[in-house]
Amino acid sequence: MPPGIRGPLAYVGTLRGALVTVGIFASAVGLATAAVLPELRSLGLGIFASGAAALTFLAMATLMRPYHRVARRTQRYELASLVSVLALTGIVALFNYVIVQSDVVADLTASEQYTLAPQTLDTLTERLDAPVEATAFIVDDSNAVTPLEALIAERMVDYLREFERRSGGRFSYQVIDPERFPDIAYSKEVTQWPSVVFENANAGTRQKVVATSNPEQEFLTALLVVLGLSQKSIYVLDGYSSWDLTDQNDPDAPQTLGFALRGLEGDSYNVGVLNLIEDPRIPDDASLIIAAAPDHELGIEDGTALNAYLEGGGRLLALLQPDLPGSWRALIARWGIDALEGYVIDPDSHVAGSEWVPLVGNEGYASTEVTSEASTTFFPSLAPLWVVRAPEDMPTLVDLKPIALTSENSFASDRIERVRRLSTDLGGPFMVGVIARVRGPVDRPVPASAPVTTVGVFGDADFVSNRYFYAFSNSDLFLNTVNHIAGDDALVSIRPKPTVFREMAMTPRELEIVRYIGWFLLPLLVALFGSAVWWVRR
User: Fewer CB within 10 A of the end CB, N or C, for the chain?
Assistant: First the structure.
């Protein structure tokens, strides 16, 4: 051990060294707490006093030293050990007390499980222009509720506390036991609990949220309602695809849009399902229509209604697949986007071992408005996209933004399993996704006063299925595209991921290594460190 370390280490092991260390450290912590946190000044002064007491004890111990050398050494070590243990216990207790009493919150989870979404923070800090009060009705008696109800209630209160902390004083809440104060629950028309009532103190508007496993979204929606901030409506077309639009329970479902719809609701959209086959009328409040994996042809009446909606300045996001029905191919071609035949094979950038699953990184993104913060995305069964004609030959085209591109060596294969390029294959790069703003269809002249239509197209729908929605940046790319098309660029961001169960899969050999490390290596390290300290102090 270097001589420069041996001396200080030996000194810390003595009574004088331990007391000096504890005294100086406690004094410094106390003074810093009193200076930086005025609300904890009394606590800081108390810590400072404990440090001063330790130094005082050092002076007393010095004066009371016995003359016998052996006794002096034994007593000194025993007293030093006792003081060190007591000091460490006191410092840990004080540190925990400071953390509990202070208003400091840190989310250390890998996927930011306990961090408010940017949309929520924007509402609390920028759009909350009136004081809002929330009353949570939660039963105090633990015997009267189930463990699940208690967990839900605790989570709801945690979010209310975080809302209050982030609102700058414009949001407040209180917790009421409805069994002790039934008159208050009756006055707010609460009949079941746990539930929370949001009220606008100025306008008198009220919104109730009953027990929910997703309190952040429900609370944000309630805030928007009581503040009078309307939600945009997005409709997903039903009847043209074999996909399930509602299942949000199966994370491995390959042809299910449930997670994507939940993500839209998480961005504060009012999401509905629209069946134009049964009723070919599009609601007046439709801000965007989404067509996911259409594999059935458009009819006459529903196709006419959809074209009329677009010609009136509507917005459409089409998530296509290879082998697209002809009527859908013709629909998007009217707005300047051509869905080509085949499957995109990308030998330069793909998921390992799957050339038919193009992978797009930072170098492949083309639209900074949508992908500025996205990382990697991938697209199983991607159909090649391009423009129907050169932009200069489309006089009605206002703006065309490719979202992402495949590599230059990509090509369109007639079969997904054929990954070797033939001389007859159409070469890339291809557009993975594109957003076109057009003043009327490109196949006929329109007046300059015609409204602007926005059409977004992806050559793949699988990347937003439940199985792949939360993989890499797939969800962010989809939701950011929706935000951009719907005119909500302020919502374009990287969102916190949902709660996921993380498990470690180990082979028997890896399990043995972990077991032996816990059994032998860690105790051996402790023994070696103890031997080093003994060698210095012998």
Answer: C
